[in-house]
TrEMBL record:
<protein>
    <recommendedName>
        <fullName>Nucleoside diphosphate kinase</fullName>
        <ecNumber>2.7.4.6</ecNumber>
    </recommendedName>
</protein>
<feature type="binding site">
    <location>
        <position position="91"/>
    </location>
    <ligand>
        <name>ATP</name>
    </ligand>
</feature>
<dbReference type="GO" id="GO:0005737">
    <property type="term" value="C:cytoplasm"/>
</dbReference>
<dbReference type="Pfam" id="PF00334">
    <property type="entry name" value="NDK"/>
</dbReference>
<keyword id="KW-0418">Kinase</keyword>
<keyword id="KW-0597">Phosphoprotein</keyword>
<keyword id="KW-0808">Transferase</keyword>
<dbReference type="InterPro" id="IPR036850">
    <property type="entry name" value="NDK-like_dom_sf"/>
</dbReference>
<dbReference type="GO" id="GO:0005524">
    <property type="term" value="F:ATP binding"/>
</dbReference>
<dbReference type="InterPro" id="IPR001564">
    <property type="entry name" value="Nucleoside_diP_kinase"/>
</dbReference>
<keyword id="KW-0546">Nucleotide metabolism</keyword>
<dbReference type="GO" id="GO:0006241">
    <property type="term" value="P:CTP biosynthetic process"/>
</dbReference>
<feature type="binding site">
    <location>
        <position position="102"/>
    </location>
    <ligand>
        <name>ATP</name>
    </ligand>
</feature>
<dbReference type="InterPro" id="IPR034907">
    <property type="entry name" value="NDK-like_dom"/>
</dbReference>
<keyword id="KW-0963">Cytoplasm</keyword>
<feature type="domain" description="Nucleoside diphosphate kinase-like">
    <location>
        <begin position="1"/>
        <end position="138"/>
    </location>
</feature>
<dbReference type="GO" id="GO:0004550">
    <property type="term" value="F:nucleoside diphosphate kinase activity"/>
</dbReference>
Length: 139
């Protein structure tokens, strides 16, 4: 069993896609074991996207991700990290396959609806930015 960090980005919340996306995660058979709606601080955004510091899109990314509320979740299940990455689809929604969340619900690389951790190590780091251990329901 694995845990991963999943976040519906400001455009997803604004476009009222929360129910649609949570429905997909639930129907897949994954378990949501923590959930929180937050207006992200600049500090949290910089920690979450540390790996992209210095890239051309970094400032745009930080201002976009702090522009409105995001829905943060911890999702658990067998191979949860890889399964969620497959479900969200490619970073650029124009490349994302139909049937994936980005493939079905987004069109812009800058505003691509959802984030999911790309490794178990990153999942641990990202969960700890938004959740204390006591906020995550133990299996
Ligand atoms: P996350 O799950 O959000 O981390 O996306 P990802 O892992 O599929 O992509 P990556 O970590 O490489 O990039 C993080 C985020 O930065 C992306 O989801 C995009 O929102 C944004 N991003 C990446 N590349 C570009 C780019 O070339 N232009 C713009 N505007 N945004 C980008
Ligand atoms: Mg990433």
């Amino acid at each position: 069993l694995q845990k991963t960090f999943v976040m519906i980005k400001p455009d997803g919340v604004k476009r009222k896609l929360v129910g649609e996306i949570i429905g997909r995660i639930e129907r897949k058979g994954l378990d949501i074991i923590a959930m929180k709606l937050v207006k992200m601080s600049k500090e949290a955004a910089e920690k979450l996207y540390e790996e992209h510091k210095g890239k051309s899109f970094y400032q745009d990314l930080v201002s976009y991700i702090t522009s409105g509320p995001v829905l943060c979740m911890v999702v658990a299940g067998d191979e949860a990290v890889a399964v969620m990455r497959k479900m969200i689809g490619a970073t650029d929604p124009k490349e994302a396959s139909p049937g994936t969340i980005r493939g079905d619900l987004a069109l812009s690389k800058g505003e691509n609806v959802i984030h999911a951790s790309d490794s178990e190590e990153k999942a641990k780091k990202e969960m700890s930015i938004f959740f204390s251990d006591s906020e995550i329901i133990a299996g």
